[in-house]
Each structure stands twice: as C-alpha cells, then as structure tokens.
Design a protein that fits this description.
The protein is α/β, with parallel strands linked by helices and 259 residues long. The chain is 22% helix and 25% strand. The model has no long low-confidence stretch (mean pLDDT 96).
Length: 259
C-alpha cells in the first residue's frame, strides 16, 4: 500500500493537532468529571473559529476511552463534516483494529503521510495491556526507510507516548519504553525537524540535537505538571496549531479553551 500524498493550499503546511479526547460510545460519558464529547466539541469550535482552515487535522491517540468500536463512530461523526484529511494514530486506550476498521477515508491511520515539502510518519506506540508504549522493530524499519526515501523533505514524527521525560515521575514511568531505539534511527538523518506527541495531557516544548520536541494538552482533562504522583490539573482543554515552512521551520502554539 503506497503512502498518501496530500495537497496543501500554500507553501507553508498548516496543521491543527487534537489529542487524547477519550471519547465514549455514550456521548454522556465522563472522564474524571469532564464530559469528553462536549469538551472536544468546544475545542473544535474554538479551533474552527481561530485557526481554520488547516491542510490536515492530526489526532495523536487515546481517541476512545472505553476501547469500543462505537467510540470511533462518535469520533467519525464529529470529524467527517470537517471535509479535511484526519491523520490518526493509536494511544494506549485505543483499539488499533477498531480504528482501522471504523476510520476510513478521509481518515488516515498509522501511515507515512507526504506533503509538498514535509513527511509525517504516524507511528504506533500501542502495546496491549499496558499504559506505556513501545515502537516495534518493524515500525522502526519503516521509519528509517521513510527518512531515507524522503531526504529532500522535512520530517515531523508523530506518536502518542513521550520519548523524553516531561518531569513527572509517574507519567515518565508510562512513557515510551524504547526511546533509545527511536533516537538511534533519527540521529542517522538530518531531515527530522520535530517530534510531536500526546499522552501527557500537558504542554511541553524542548529541543534535542536541533529537533523540536512537543507535547500538547488534552481536549478534556489535564495532568498536573512536575508531579511525582498522579494528579489532575484544573486547566482547561486545548489544542495545538502548527505552521511547517518549506525551509523546515516550525511555528506553533497551544490554545487553551476556557469558558
């Protein structure tokens, strides 16, 4: 199966990232006191008001909280009307099989997506039965092949689990279990500009060897930063916008959507 090449309206590629919506089959479902369907709707409305129209939407995992097939149908009903490519990858709460079966065109699940001057590998870090993540040997080979075959393009790698510590002991205990394998591939190439993930339910922005490292807040409930033990943050839901330039420059910001 060939990797999709998507059109973009301008030289700068425009994306909006949503992450960790934790949708239920029942639209009344709540996670830690938040109706996740209503919260995602609110965030979508804000993004459509202030950062629209992107060339694609990116959703970095934990789409469904209850691992039900119906949760992806709720997601599809929300995102289908956008009439945009929706790039998706699984988180630890997802069911990759249900995702592939329920999310067809315009949804793109766990593929390498090509644009004019950018390549976006959508990596699965899903491991059944654990909240932590891992990139399989096959996925690492696929990533190396994508980086090699697209040396003329800039690369933004997308995944669910954090490949570097974010400063919370409990969260970093359920991050990516083999980050050294990921970086051993990335460090062989010069075209990787950024890595973007979800999972941590908070904003993060750092740099490693010239590669931008970014995490984004959930569209529902946030985790308290710099906490050794599990703790919730009272901060509002949010999303991230990105402008990826033809020169490899990444412009980005996080928007919190408060009442």
């Amino acid at each position: 199966m060939s990797n999709p090449h998507l059109e973009q309206s301008e030289a700068t590629l425009r994306l909006v990232q949503f992450t960790d919506p934790h949708l239920f089959a029942d639209r009344r479902g709540e996670m830690r006191g938040v109706n996740t369907y209503d919260s995602l709707n609110k965030v979508l409305d804000a993004a459509r008001r202030d950062h629209w129209t992107p060339d694609a939407v990116l959703v970095t995992g934990d789409i469904a909280q209850d691992e039900s097939r119906a949760g992806y149908r709720v997601f599809r009903e929300l995102f289908d009307p956008l009439s945009l490519p929706v790039l998706c990858l699984p988180g630890n709460h997802d069911d990759p099989k249900f995702m592939r079966e329920e999310l067809k065109d315009p949804f793109i699940v766990t593929r390498d997506v090509m644009f004019d001057s950018w390549c976006l590998p959508l990596l699965s870090t899903y491991v059944r039965g654990t909240a932590a993540g891992e990139i399989s040997r096959d996925s690492l080979k696929r990533l190396a092949a994508a980086l090699s075959a697209n040396e003329e393009k800039h690369v933004l790698i997308c995944l669910h689990h954090q490949p570097v510590p974010v400063g919370s002991k409990w969260l970093d205990g359920v991050g990516l279990r083999n980050p050294e394998d990921l970086f051993s591939v990335i460090d062989k190439f010069e075209n990787v500009r950024g890595i973007l993930w979800g999972h941590v339910h908070q904003e993060f922005d750092a740099e490693r060897k010239g590669v931008r490292l970014m995490a984004s807040p959930s569209t529902c409930r946030q985790f308290l930063p710099d906490s050794d033990q599990f703790a919730l943050d009272d901060g509002p839901p949010g999303y991230r916008w990105l402008r990826l330039g033809p020169d490899g420059k990444i412009e980005t910001g996080v928007v919190y959507v408060d009442d």
